[in-house]
Specification:
The chain is of the alpha/beta class. It contains twelve helices and 14 strands. Strand 1, helix 3 and strand 2 form a beta-alpha-beta unit. Helix 10 crosses helix 11.
Length: about 350
């Protein structure tokens, strides 16, 4: 754990050290961390971004270029911190947790649960040497590739769930959608405030409109709605139209927002007029909800192991029989726009 705040180090170390399978080493800045890492290489780094002597982004770039280690960003929610944290995801970080505020000694149970889950998730992540991200690739070019003209009718709703590694995966999928593509609703496990900034960045590089969902937003062709952090999102139908509902509530499948909440609502409201996609991430959030979608007649897809940062969520969905097709990430946009895999149950594609 690398953070210049002694209080934050103490609190997070205390939370993580309660887990029998997690041991914690702390450093007050990246230079100290680099010295300690020569003696013991960590499985995961929890990293602050604003520190003396070397900032967190510089340290992250160095790690990802030389010897990639799964890194979780511990960030404040101020505008500057939010943008820096999203940039860190571009640089190879696998997730974000919010920095404890005043009163950190009374660190909430839910926050502790999220922290330990994301550290365990990061420990199993596939990290490669740094390459330009999907977001960066699209930010660097103003010319978007042409997409196949043949596609599904735009009235089918697409529901997507993702966690660790999902920001890159969502960028690739949403960036491939044409301006009149199907309406999309998505849950990406991410703290509140960060989901709005993430949606804004996607909106800048996608042909479709991307926004953080608000209660009552209508789902329509050419628009993707991202569930707000720390709130569940569900889909409800009113006559011919579908809308999202945003609500508080307890953690579901250890998450809020929960993919299971979204998928179950889509199963009830849309039935066979839906496509469910489960992407990279740890745990089982979304597996049961995707099974309900499949039983309701919806088409269902899981990202394959080779292209996942963490194969946990897709693996659980496949294991419980919720998936019609298993596809590499690069093939999923084409399937959204063209195909129907329900006739070929549990199809694997390379």
């Amino acid at each position: 754990m690398v953070d210049d705040s002694a209080v934050v180090r103490q609190v997070l170390e205390g939370v993580l050290s309660q887990e029998q399978d997690i041991s914690v080493m702390v450093a007050a800045d990246p230079l100290i961390a680099l010295q300690k890492m020569t003696r013991a290489r960590p499985d995961v780094i929890v990293l602050d971004l604003e520190m003396p002597r070397m900032d967190g982004l510089t340290f992250l770039r160095k790690i990802m270029a030389e010897d990639p280690i799964p890194t979780v960003i511990c960030s404040g929610i101020a505008a500057r911190g939010t943008e820096a944290a999203l940039r860190a995801l571009d640089e190879g970080a696998v997730g974000i947790v919010t920095k404890p505020k005043l009163g950190v000694r009374s660190f909430l149970y839910e926050s502790a649960l999220v922290l330990t889950d994301i550290v365990r998730s990061a420990a199993g992540a596939r990290i490669r040497r740094r390459f330009p991200s999907a977001l960066e690739n699209r930010e660097r070019t103003s010319i978007r590739p042409q997409r196949p003209a043949r596609r599904i009718s735009s009235d089918r709703l697409v529901a997507i769930g993702a966690s660790t590694g999902g920001t890159e995966a969502l960028a690739e999928i949403l960036g491939a959608m044409p301006a009149d593509g199907p309406g999309i609703v998505a849950v990406q496990h991410m703290p509140e405030v960060f989901t709005a900034a993430f949606a804004q960045r996607l909106n800048q590089i996608c042909q479709i409109e991307v926004k953080e969902a608000q209660h009552g937003d209508r789902i329509s062709p050419g628009k993707a709605l991202i569930a707000p952090g720390n709130h569940h999102m569900s889909v409800r139908r009113r006559g011919p139209d579908s809308f999202v509902e945003i609500e508080d509530g307890p953690l579901v499948s250890r998450h809020r927002p929960s993919v299971d909440v979204l998928f179950r609502s889509v199963a009830k409201s849309e039935g066979m007029n839906a496509l469910g996609i489960i992407l990279t991430g740890m745990g089982n959030d979304g597996a049961r909800g995707l099974l309900e979608m499949k039983k309701a007649g919806a088409e269902t897809i899981a990202q394959d192991e080779a292209t996942c940062v963490v194969f946990g969520m897709p693996k659980e969905a496949i294991a419980c029989g919720a998936v019609n097709a298993v596809l590499p990430l690069s093939k999923i946009p084409e399937k959204i726009l063209q195909g129907d895999c329900r006739k070929r149950d549990l199809t694997f594609s390379r």
